[in-house]
Amino acid sequence: MYKIIGGDGQEYGPISDADIHQWITEGRLNGQSMAKAESDTTFRPLSTFPEFAVALGTPTPGHGAASSLVSEADWSNRDYELDIGGCLGRGWGLFKNNAGILLGTTALYFLIIIAVSIALGMVLNMMFLVVFSRDDLQSAPVKMGTDFLFRIISALAFGPLAGGIYYIFIRAIRGQMTGVGDLFAGFPKAFLQLFLGYLVFILLLGLCLAPYNYIEFSRMAPLLMQMQHGLPPDQMRPVLQQIWGIFVDSSPILLVCMIPAVYVLTSILFSLPLIIDRGMDFWPSIKWSWKMTHKHWFTVFGLVFITGLINLVGFCLCCCVGLLFTFAITTAAYMYAYETIFGGPGAKE
């Protein structure tokens, strides 16, 4: 919902985005009309709202660097003010106004990710069984090798799909028509670059977590082999208790490994949106995401931290069903942050 200041200087609202679109069409509002969203503290020109850019005839970023609101050359001299609460509030507003398409595509995205993960895991397991015994498959080197291969192959699908989900949210923010088909837009638009960008991200993440994974796999392997060969009921509980003990004992190592992992995640958070939205190659998108987030890294990290907590709550609610809702809301918040950092509302020279 929004409030506006009319031509008579009076404040009107709250009104919906549909009302604003209609009033723009009728000529009652223009880009200089002052408005504010529920999450805003002050009024600002309507032209700074990306969701009304199409209705106002304002150029909006599309796929390809030439259509950017702000060129790459301008980013180095550009600063921004990132309002975490504002991003979350506007993300919630976008979700409320577009719940059907955002929730539907999020659910489809999750289903595809789960289906591909299961199918690929089964295929890789059968392939490795040709070379290794079942006991060898539980060893730390083999499990880490399987995980590494899984990351590479899965990136062929997960990269373009991630680009597609960002593309849907960006178009919804800018008031552009979007649909389920846009979830697969990354395949024809930027398949190779999204694959490479996603691959770099997950390999860096895997490298950060490698010490923890190796220790975890090494200590867990004997217990998993026992369970694989079958255990009587009276021995199952002690084994499960040992597995839980391993998780607890190795948690300090996980926390240490998470420090560089979170640093990398925050720094290149916007690389895939830059690829799908502005048509950038994967390496420049990573460099620009890194450079722009480091202008206010701790603020961006604050957004990552809070949205992570929100998604954790969603994961724990209703047998993980709540994650569908929280993921959609937090992704919308990320895309509002993307608009702010790379030339949308809130950026400043």
General description of the model:
This protein has a 4-stranded antiparallel sheet with strand order 2-1-3-4. The chain has a two-stranded antiparallel ribbon with strand order 5-6. The protein has 2 domains: 2-58; 79-348, no CATH class. It has helices at 17-25, 53-56, 72-75, 84-97, 99-131, 134-137, 140-173, 186-229, 233-267, 271-278, 282-293, 297-316, 322-341, and strands at 2-5, 11-15, 34-37, 44-45, 79-80, 347-348. The chain is mainly α and 349 residues long. It is built from 13 helices and 6 strands. Helix 5 crosses helix 13 and helix 10 (271-278) packs across helix 11. It starts with a strand and ends with a strand.
Name some characteristics of this structure.
349 residues, mainly alpha, four-stranded antiparallel β-sheet, two-stranded antiparallel ribbon, 5% strand, elongated, disordered C terminus
Summarize the structure.
The protein is mainly alpha-helical and 349 residues long.
